[in-house]
Amino acid sequence: MMASSYNAKEEDGHHSGASSGAGAAKNRKPDNTAFKQQRLPAWQPILTAGSVLPAFFVIGLIFIPIGIGLYVTSNNIREFEIDYTGESSNSPCYSCAKNVTWNSTEPCFCTVNFTLARPFESNVFMYYGLSNFYQNHRRYVKSRDDRQLNGDPSSLRNPSKECEPYRTSGDLPIAPCGAIANSLFNDSLVLYYIDSNNSQSEVPLVKKGIAWWTDKHVKFKNPGGNSNLTAAFQGTAKPVNWRKPVYELDPSDPENNGFINEDFIVWMRTAALPTFRKLYRIIQKKPGATPTLPSGNYVLHITYNYPVLSFDGRKRMILSTISWMGGKNPFLGIAYITVGSICFFLGVVLLIIHHKYDNRNTSADIPS
Amino acid sequence: MGMDFSTLRTLISRYCVGEENWVDSRTIYIGHKEPPPGTEAFIQQRFPDNRIVSSKYTFWNFIPKNMFEQFRRVANFYFLIIFLVQLIIDTPTSPVTSGLPLFFVITVTAIKQGYEDWLRHKADNAVNQCPVHVVQHGKVTRKQSRKLRVGDVVLVKEDETFPCDLVLLASSRDDGTCFVTTASLDGESSHKTYYAVQDTKAYNTEKEVDTIHATIECEQPQPDLYKFVGRINIYMNNEPVARPLGSENLLLRGATLKNTEYIYAVAIYTGMETKMALNYQSKSQKRSAVEKSMNAYLVVYLCILISKAVINTALKYVWQSDPNRDEPFYNQRTEAERQRHILIRAFTDFLAFMVLFNYIIPVSMYVTVEMQKFLGSYFIMWDDEMFDEELGERAVVNTSDLNEELGQVEYVFTDKTGTLTENNMEFIECCVDGHIYVPHAICNGQVMPDAAGMDMIDSSPGPEAREHEELFFRALCLCHTVQVKEEETVDGIKHGIHQGKSTSFYISSSPDEVALVEGMKRLGFTYLRLNDGQMEILNRENEVEKFDLLDVLTFDSVRRRMSVIVRASTGEVYLFCKGADSSIFPRVISGKVDQVRARVEQNAVEGLRTLCVAYRRLSPDQYQEVCQLLSRARLALQDRDKRLAEAYDLIEKDLILLGATAVEDRLQEKAADTIESLHKAGIKVWVLTGDKMETAAATCYASKLFHRNTQILELTTKRTEEQSLHDVLFDLSRTVLRQHGGMTRDTFSGLSGDCTDYGLIIDGATLTAVMRPGQEGSNSGNYKEKFLEICRNCSAVLCCRMAPLQKAQIVKLIKASEEHPITLAIGDGANDVSMILEAHVGIGVMGKEGRQAVRNSDYAIPKFKHLKKMLLVHGHYYYIRISELVQYFFYKNVCFIFPQFLYQFFCGFSQQPLYDTAYLTLYNISFTSLPILLYSLMEQHINMDILKKDPCLYRDIAKNSLLRWPSFIYWTVLGVYDAIVMFFGAYFLFDNTTFTSNGQLMTTNTQMMFGNWTFGTLVFTVLVFTVTFKLALDTHYWTWINHFVIWGSLIFFVVFSLLWGGIIWPFLNYQRMYYVFMQMLSSGPAWFSIILLITASLLPDVLKKVIWRALWPTTTERIQNADKLYKGQLSEFTPLASLHAPPKANSQRRGSENQRNPRRTNWCCLCANMLSRNTA
Fold first, then answer.
1. Confidence of residue B740 (pLDDT cuts 50, 70, 90)
2. How far apart are CA A61 and CA A69, in angstroms?
3. B180, B179, B167: which is closest to B234 by C-alpha?
4. Taken in order B47, B53, B54, B56, is the CA torsion positive or negative?
5. Could B1007 and A322 be called an inter-chain contact, meaning their C-beta atoms sit closer than 8 Å?
6. Chain B, window 377-406: residues with a beta carbon less than 8 angstroms from a chain A beta carbon
7. Do B220 and B24 meet the contact criterion of CB atoms below 8 Å apart?
8. Strand, helix or coil at B1176?
9. Sign of the CA dihedral B715, B721, B722, B724?
């Protein structure tokens, strides 16, 4: 279409005829440049068995050790997981699970005992995990107002349409609006260590530093600064499911209250898959040689607020240490080993092919 | 009374038709003067003014009209629909994702078309406003060109162009002629003579012109530049005199007046009705085979798209049947959504899925393909090797849509004269009554000054023969349309005649005629000039003989002869006729036919062009009769051509044969080499010519179309006279098929190289018989099939004695045969236009017969030899390039969209997009667009020189081999595999394990969680790298531009991602990508998985390539391997040529020897067997 459409020289016959003399004919000679003659100097690689062979071996030789390293690292990570959904009748949280609905006002308490067979060295991370929870549902993912969360006063009063049906409560705008904020995970988990003389001591949980630094400091902002949140959120309603307004999420610490509450920020980063875990607390390594979590009996005190049985969900509490390459992840190591071995094996196959066929091909039987 | 009735009838019928435009002739009052009363009254038609509008748009209608034009294209319309759907319903991706690319494409196209149209407007204005001299009331006034009306009398001065189509009334030259070049119309720069109307040529001042009282009746405008039929009625003393008008009286708009001081002419067709304007109309669009398979793929992908959407919609409703899944407490619908009817919801969901997956059909593919074709065609124009120094011309690309089709050609139909041969004629000999005359002393085509003698081969003839001989020479001096040009600066065909003082040239549109007239000069008879209707000849005794030129019966390719009627000074009237033997011999009643025929056949076998000359003496009565016949035919307004042909047929009879001439037309440089290469490339070459069978066959031998061991099959009138057509056809097919069976056996025994191949010769008459839709329909269809079957098994076919339309018929026949091969027609003359238009690819050779073929062609090349590079190099490259482009585009979009499809299974079929809007929008536009565009412009899988040396490489890509279904499926499967690797790789890293990052960039020791956008970004990063590396692996030709673009677009992707996530963008109402990319890169596992997934994705493709290359290499791959090997080992010491094809170098040298001294060399004996078969 492009080339055929117009050729100015051809169409205005009045001008062209006179000017095409002998001089013009000389000018018609194309420029003899490497580009125009398609003779630019070029590297011309060809993938033959011979040239690919070393690459396969090299990939194999690099990937297999990496895979082994990753696998070993991953295996060295301590991880402990406990399901406290309370689905079966013999589970301690059975009654809570049965009674709690999202609009119940009274909290329900339950405790779960567990034993760590081996101590957890270094920092331990505490996660909550949810299953069958579609945080990646489209209606859910878009149901938020990033401007409002960024502290924009006009969005605070007039949240985005995307927040429907969690946009307004009565006549008042909801802050924070939307389905994500509305469904904030509100179980609270407290961990106690039962020492040898059967006395319970609370394990100190750090609740800050669990969100992305950029989220906490740039993306999420309280309207009108972090002081006097009550005034700032005047004229807005709390999300329907919430028991308390946003400015009371952590009254003790103004740096962790309102939109910049880290539990809230973590929740607002929607998970990729319906089964996910989110960072809840950090258990800091104690100075000296004592393990962060020594082996022994523990009890988990749960304030059971979050109903999951209605959608066949599960709730878990996970304790995990990390390595230089993140959390427990055997897949990556196995995958590296597999791909590396395949490459190595293919290298051998190609070597055979190369010896058997390549020489024959390149020898002489080039068709003329 | 009867007369009145007929007038009335015509009047009534004209009124009844209503539309005046439907009247098939028009009447023009010269100078707007009403005809005298009493003559037939005409209804004055309304004619358009002389405004030329080549522009498509006006300022006001540009936007709507351009939009309409653009959205008429299916692809654009599809994207518009997607865009509108996105606007109307709540869809997963914002309208921007499809709106922006569409807007970009539409805007760029609109700007380009707008700019072009602005140029056209400017050109139009310049033309429309240029001043024109018009004669009004006996005075010359200036008018703007656009105000010119039909019937205005115009004064045109030397070197001015004609403002509209004019009928020449008078010129400054006394004989009423004027010279014109039509260089800007059809490219012919030679001067042509036009004639004023006989009765008005004396009126050559403006006062006198103003007194002309006449009307012109002529046909309604039609685009044929070389046809015009009209009649002028001149009222002198109120007595109407009717004269015929023909194309020799019509001056076309766009042509330029030369060598004539001024002319007066009357406007006949103005503005958009001029022949030039009518010729603007664009030709029908040809579509390439690649485009067709592209459309087929598109349909497949559309089906995939729809089925994906349907599957997902169905699964969504199955999944949602549980209300806790449909509306869990955390994710409620709005009230409005709940109340919507289920069917409407389902339909909206379906549309939303369509929108989500619509990127599988990339809008940018069309843009890229078009850019590739448009930019790529410049390489053809820029090619230094296709520049001809002699002509000063380079290759021209008229349509870039067919670039890749050049790599798919299976049949080449070539014209002979001017295409295979140089069309540079040289007089060789003549034969009068069997006596042969050879002008000697020819040295490099130049006449030795004092050696203008002749060589009589036979014994000197008697007195009667002497008379015949002189008559023959005179006939040749008179029977032509050659002009004499007495200046030194003439464009076009030059032939110097150094005759005493003045230098003069013979100019003619037919090189044969020039050769003949020059030959006569060497034999002692010199044609001097045409002066006042008298032809002057200088005879052997240096006396000037004068002949009145009474009439010229012009040449046409159907009649294949021309005649002149002259009156000698003695008062005798002669008709001299010259033409092809086949058209002369049947009309001859006496003369030494047998001797002449023998000589003609002998000459033809040697590849010379022969013409026979005959004469007829006309008695005064006969002459009167002839005059009447001619004038009656010429005055006819309808079917004038047919009537003229009938008249000519009646006049050119009872001829007395004088003799024959032989003219040589040399083969073009490297024509034989080119044909050999085409043969090796698996292309079947057919020669279609109007020439005699023997001449054509000889040329075929010389040009290596037929080889020594080619067995010639004949399907000619000569054979069909002996046997019935039916028998001949079945005989031939049996021969061919037996051979075919034998050949397969031969290939088993490894002797296939020696087996004879077949060449077929068919002539026009037999072809008509074969093609004729016979009485018994079944039988004739059978003929066609049999004929096609024979043709398929012949390596070369020669069709001689072809009329122009038959050439197109042949091309059509082959095009329509069951394999639907791709055809290419190449020719240089007007008679080749029909086949050039008919074939898939039409190529014009810039020959000496004007520019008609070039104008109608898709590509034009200066010489036949350039066809080799055009097909073997450019065609091959373009095909490789575009097939990769098309496949790669579909592949990369499968990779792109399939993960998104898989993600639906994990997000509750909620149409949640995997990638961010910016990624969705820019993937095809900027992240992955330039590398493939550049690949499709620069890729050279094999060096150019090797492609030229090994034509058989062309077979590797024959039959659209790279775009057939297996390779399409391979690419699609590869795309799906890559998509699965990318998606599930990321899935397993995210699922149930701790795929985490060090979220706090400032401090360490903490571990953050990634969300869905990081998941998508990880997949997208792997995707962009994989897809780009895949192209890098396919690239065989890495120039610095490739490096720049491939690594550049990866860097661009990274930089863009950093920037896109690095800022809170104030204009966005979501900040989902904020720091996502950086956080991902700060995570160790992300790096590891990116590397792993890229490797795993590329592995199978590399493996497939390597193994296929090793186990089942194509010729191309073998050559590549060998090339590499030799380059490594032998470097520059050994030229590649000697390694690849040592025997070919020899044959080339032999070929060039043949060309240097082509006449009467060894291929004479090659033809001997043919001759013997003919005479036997």
1. low
2. 13
3. B167
4. negative
5. yes
6. 377-379, 381-384, 387, 389, 391-394, 397-401
7. yes
8. coil
9. positive
Instruction: Check residue A109 and report its DSSP letter.
Output: E
Q: Cα–Cα distances in Å, from B1127 out to A4, B1117, B1132? A: 41, 15, 8
Locus of tokens 């990318």: B982
How distant is the Cα of A162 from the closest Cα of chain B, in angstroms? 10
Q: In angstroms, rounded to a whole number, what is the distance separating the alpha carbons of residues B359 and B364? A: 10
What are the φ/ψ torsions at residue B207 (nearest 5 degrees)? -65, -45
Tell me the C-alpha distance between B590 and B608, whole Å.
25
Question: Which residues in chain B have their CB less than 8 angstroms from residue A135's CB?
Answer: 1012
Q: CB B624: neighbour CB atoms within 10 A? A: 11
Q: Give the ipTM.
A: 0.92
Q: How many CB atoms lie within 10 A of CB B323?
A: 10
User: Which residue type occupies A132?
Assistant: N
C-alpha A264/C-alpha A279 separation (Å) is 11
> Quick check: B858 and B284 in contact, CB under 8 A?
no
A99 Cβ partners below 8 Å, 6+ apart? A108
> d(Cα A343, Cα A351) in Å, to the nearest integer?
12
Q: What distance in Å separates the CA atoms of residue B674 and residue B672, rounded to the nearest whole number?
A: 5
In tens, the pLDDT along B1006-1058 reads: 456 688 898 999 999 999 999 999 999 999 999 999 999 999 999 999 999 99
Query: What pLDDT, in 10s, does the model give residues B817-849?
Result: 888 899 999 988 777 888 888 899 999 998 766
Distance (Å, whole) CA A166 – CA A178: 5
Q: Say which amino acid occupies B987.
A: Y
Residues 6+ positions from B140 with CB-CB distance below 8 Å: B133, B134, B155, B206
Chain B residues 263-322 with a CB less than 8 Å from chain A: 276, 280, 282, 285
CA distances from A22 to A9, B389, B491 (A): 17, 12, 10
Specify the amino acid at residue B891.
Y
The answer for residues whose C-beta is within 8 angstroms of residue B1117's C-beta and 6 or more apart is B1109
- Largest Cα separation within chain B, whole Å, is 124
DSSP B213: -
Altogether, the residues listed in chain A come to a count of 368
**Are B673 and B1148 a contacting pair, CB within 8 Å?**
yes
- A199 CA: distance to closest CA in chain B (Å): 30
What lies within 8 Å, CB to CB, of A245 at 6+ separation is A233, A238
Decide: residue A95, CB within 10 A, 0-12 exposed, 13-18 middle, 19+ buried. middle
Q: CB-CB: which of A28, A179, A219 is closest to B331? A: A179
pLDDT for B189: 55
- Please spell the DSSP secondary structure of B1009-1068, one letter per residue: E--HHHHHHHHHHHHHHHHHHHHHHH---B-HHHHHHHHHHHHHHHHHHHHHHHS--TT-
Nearest alpha carbon to residue B577 among B588, B567, B569:
B588
Name the residue type at position A362: T
N residues, chain B: 1176
Handedness of CA B775, B778, B783, B785 (dihedral sign): positive
Within the 53-82 window of chain B, which residues sit less than 8 Å (CB to CB) from chain A?
Answer: 54
Chain A interface test: which of B111, B854, B1009 (most A C-beta within 10 Å): B1009
A368 and B987 in contact by Cβ < 8 A?
no
Average pLDDT over residues A54-78: 92
Query: Which are the catalytic amino acids of B?
Result: 415
Task: List all residues 6 or more positions away from A118 whose beta carbon is below 8 Å from its beta carbon.
Answer: A78, A295
Q: Are B831 and B690 in contact (CB under 8 A)?
A: yes
- Whether B921 and B97 have beta carbons less than 8 Å apart is answered as yes
Cβ(B167)–Cβ(B268) below 8 Å: yes
